[in-house]
Amino acid sequence: MASGPLNGIRILEFTQIIAGPLGCQLLADLGAEIIKIEPPEGEPWRLNQQFIPKESKVFMGLNRGKKSLAIDMAQPKAQEAIHRLVKDVDVVVINYRPDVAARLGIDYETLCAIRPDVIYMDNTAFGREGEWANRPGYDIAVQAASGLIAAVGKVDERGTPLVGPAHADTTTAYAIAAGVSAALYHRALTGEGQKVETSLLINALTIQMTAFADVPAADAEQRAGFQAALALARETGMPYAQFLEERQAILRRQAGGNVYYRCFLTRDGAIAMGALSTGLRSKVRATLGFEHNRDEPDYNALDPEQVKVDEAVREHVEALFLTKTSAEWEAILTKGGVPVAPITFIQELIDHPQVVANGYAVELDHEMAGPVRMQAPPWKMSKTPPAPQGPSPVLGRHSDEVLASAGYSSEEIASMRAEGVIL
Q: Are 137 and 125 contacting, i.e. CB atoms less than 8 angstroms apart?
């Protein structure tokens, strides 16, 4: 039985791929009952790199603890079934385009008329307003439009921009979980349901914070200079990779003596060090044994003479890190009170002592795939501890159970299956 703070909350999920499924998985970890609505063939992520029929590792990682109702939403009987279910549902999470939701009879206005206090969590790629409102969009498109890909600033051997992990999707998943939880709290106080909106775009902008923000008093000159350089590059047809190199050169100059918050190559790998305060930078210098005027009152990173000093310090520290292994530097810097960690690969971490000590990996038993180890819920709570409610569901595993809860008889369910309405 669910133990989390959302135990007793029932949620209908009309989402696919990453943001919506992960957001609903987080809500399932918190104790909510999640009924995932899938087409009879399964959502696309089930079919992506299947290792057994209708099962993929990525689907299993985003849909644990849910119930699967496989139903053909294009059929009137399916829409009728959803409307009957909504009467006993607290939350609907959806990431369809507005025209699709309306056509299927699962738009906010229709469902609110059936259950006035329903919470309707609506996620889109670019927001509901503006000329991009009805565009379909995946994480990669939003990363491109939001500046995230350019922020990574990496290209392959052909100069093609590279994209990192699905940052827009995953941060939106947390926004979905937070938005639903806040709306449930409001309903508990007032009895009111409501429509809640988020998008991949706003979350991609949010995680870039100061890079997105415009503060003329602080960055007017820098922003104007960058925009002028960008305009010139586009006018002259400068290759993307070449402009990235120029941009990185500008950022390096602006960073000044940045040997305190960055990654370094070591004798056998690489390590990351973070020192953002005066006190921590002092510990870095004391531990590594070098002098630098970075924290003097007259320090000016843009002064040409200071640039020479900073470059000399950078070269010295980079060479120093190459003299020892990552483990040796980790021990030295930790003893000196400097935040540091070796750069590891995700494949190394499932059995890492720190992960194991905190219970950050859990093991579940999937009825088709067998044992599955994956990340634990991202919270620990002393009174209402979250816990996975089980592995991801086999396609259509709960169709009969869910429809029966809406009052359908076994004969009606059998008829719907014979007609191809459900799997």
A: yes
DSSP letters of 125-157? SS-SSSTTTT----HHHHHHHHTHHHHH--B-T
Cα dihedral 110, 133, 182, 79 in deg (nearest 10): 30
What φ, ψ does residue 195 adopt, rounded to 5°?
Answer: -95, 130
Residue 4, φ and ψ in degrees, nearest 5: -75, 175
- Per-residue pLDDT reduced to its tens digit, 383-397: 999 999 999 999 999
The CATH fold assigned to 10-206+360-418 is: Rossmann fold (3.40.50)
Sequence letter at residue 136: P
> Tens digit of pLDDT for each residue in 88-111?
999 999 999 878 999 999 999 999
Q: How would CATH label the architecture of 257-347?
A: 2-Layer Sandwich (3.30)
Domain boundaries, the chain: 10-206+360-418, 214-255, 257-347
CB contact at 8 A, 161 and 86: no
- The pTM of this model reads 0.93
Helix (DSSP H) and strand (DSSP E) numbers for the chain: 17, 13
Closest CA to 374 of 385, 366, 364: 364
Which tokens is 413 given? 């369910």
CA distance 333 to 339: 7
Q: Dihedral of CA 300/303/309/314: which sign?
A: positive
User: What pLDDT digit, counting tens, does each position of 185-227 carry?
Assistant: 999 999 999 999 999 999 999 999 988 998 998 888 888 888 8
Q: Tell me if 176 sits within 8 A of 121, measured CB to CB.
A: yes
CA angle 50, 161, 49 (to 5 degrees): 0
Q: Read off the tokens for 59.
A: 């689907």
Q: Of 168, 25, 146, whose CA–CA distance to 93 is shortest? A: 25
Q: Is 199 helix (H, G, I), strand (E, B) or coil?
A: strand
What one-character DSSP code corresponds to residue 397?
Answer: T
